[in-house]
Amino acid sequence: MTDTDFGRVTAPAEVRFERLLPGPIETVWEFLVDSDKRGQWLASGPMELKEGGAVELRFQHRDLSPDKAAAPERFKEMDEKGHVSRERVLRLQPPRLLVISWGKSEVTFELATEGENVRLILTHRKLPTRAEMVQTSGGWHTHLAILVERANGRVPKPFWTVFGDIEAEYEKRIPK
Fold first, then answer.
1. What is the pLDDT of residues 90-147, one digit of tens each?
2. How far apart are CA 127 and CA 85, in angstroms?
3. What is the pTM of this model?
4. CA within 13 Å, CB half, 106
5. Domain ranges of the chain
6. DSSP character for 67?
7. Rg of the chain in Å (alpha carbons)
8. DSSP string across 81-126
9. Which CATH class is domain 3-173?
10. Residue 13: CB partners within 8 Å, gap ≥ 6?
């Protein structure tokens, strides 16, 4: 893991991540909008591809890899039961831009072709507290690590193994 893998605080209550993925852009777009492909790295569930459209995210972190690892105690119940989040599409410009609500915050996915690769820029805005920014950054870092593995045709490590000490690293990196 390099320093560039870590998200950066780009404004108050905002963190940004960048990853380079194998193209074409349409393939990466499918990892964002297709329930089955999104379910391989983040959360499955239907998404109405129109502004104002409903988004249902069904999180089951332990199923993101065929290999298993126990969740930390504070996430154990969520990991066993799963978690469903109901959101909205806020902006949509296929296959380059997707903005969705995320509770009281919002997430922007931007895609740009770079040769045979695609740069994914993920920006999570309006995070209400520093604690939420730290936890959310650790989660995105882990989910994106799994996406990189999936996009490259590799089997990812278990979510909770990757998550490991990442959140503690964000605790050090995000200004108080």
1. 999 999 999 999 999 999 999 999 999 999 999 999 999 999 999 999 999 999 999 9
2. 16
3. 0.96
4. 10
5. 3-173
6. S
7. 15
8. H-EEEEEEEEEEETTTEEEEEETTEEEEEEEEEETTEEEEEEEEE-
9. alpha beta
10. 105, 125, 126, 127, 128, 133
